[in-house]
Amino acid sequence: MNLKNTSTLCALGVLGLMAQAAHADDSSTIKVGAGIDYTTGNYGTSTTTDITQVPVIFGYDIDRWSFKLDVPYIHVTGADNVIPGIGPVKNSNPKGRGHGKGNASGSTTPTTETAGSASGLGDITAAATYEAYRDTSAQFGIDVTGKIKFGTADADKGLGTGKNDYSFAVDSYKGFGKWTVFGGVSYTWLGSSQYLRLNDVFGANVGASYKLDTHSSFGAYYDYREKASDTSFARNELTGYYAYKFAAGWKAQAYVTKGFTDGSPDWGVGATVAYSF
After folding, report:
1. Close Cβ partners of 248 (under 8 Å, ≥ 6 residues apart)
2. What residues does each domain of the chain span?
3. Whole-angstrom Cα Rg for the chain
4. Which of 148, 169, 211, 257 has the fewest CB atoms within 10 Å, measured from its CB?
5. Which pLDDT does position 112 carry in this prediction?
6. What would the pLDDT profile of 7-26 be if each residue is shown by its tens digit?
7. Which residue ranges does the record annotate as region Disordered (predicted)?
8. 25: closest CA among 203, 191, 240, 213?
9. SS3 call for 32
């Protein structure tokens, strides 16, 4: 069974982890998946920001190790100071989604909130999880995860920060028959630039899942992360999901997310399909 860091990933990545917890019988070592994730919210601004991501996910499991690579395409429409994966933050980049920002004196420092649209490659993430402890009879386990988010998204388009992030997480789970409870903590070193000054952040998550039968499960989890800068907000989100194995090697998942602070989207939905072999 593999659980990785949830508090530093988008809801889409977390959903895949909980599906693994609910389907521990999957012995395949290579996994390929794709999905779509849509979120919308005001993030404390006067503009609604819509973010659509289409990730392609690759995984490889061997012994107690699990490796994952997430390559997303992203489209963003909304305020230039809302950065995917970060939320609202002071952004002094003169080439942001607002285009042509500046004041009458010719300064490149933005003075007002602007909005626009942009698309392109998102931030590629790579993660390695080690199953540090497992007691099958007690249905209990502990995982540790290291993750790198590469700054491949175009910062000038407001698709990302343009810098690498590094995360470390410890997650655990405990089964009670068809029920599984899980939770974890994480710490992320966020990369700053001359336009975005970010803090390192602590995160935590807790949730539960229920296995309906050998093919399906559902569950929910709560996700928290500290605010990424002095001018931003903490993230508080609740996500519910349903996972279904519809054929040999095939798994589908769908979820809905509700945010409770200006650091989170107002709501979001998404789905993934994955094949294991």
Report:
1. none
2. 30-276
3. 19
4. 148
5. 53
6. 333 333 443 443 344 334 44
7. 85-118
8. 213
9. strand
